[in-house]
Amino acid sequence: MLRTSACYRKAERLLKRFFRDETGSTTIEYTVIAALIGVVILAGFGAIGDSLKDNIYGAITEAITGATGGGEEDDT
Fold this sequence. Notes:
The protein is an all-alpha fold.
């Protein structure tokens, strides 16, 4: 019986320490914050990518088309 009560006290101390420990919750909070920042960055890159595609590649296409005569054949 003495041994059982000692095991019970040790288990009780272990459980109390486990429930007071907050290091795991802090790690989870930082992980959630990092994930949200990553989502915002990816959304920003998506918007910037569409803008670059429209502006830069559109300008390059126009320049090439203008330099080559627009792809039209001359009848002269």
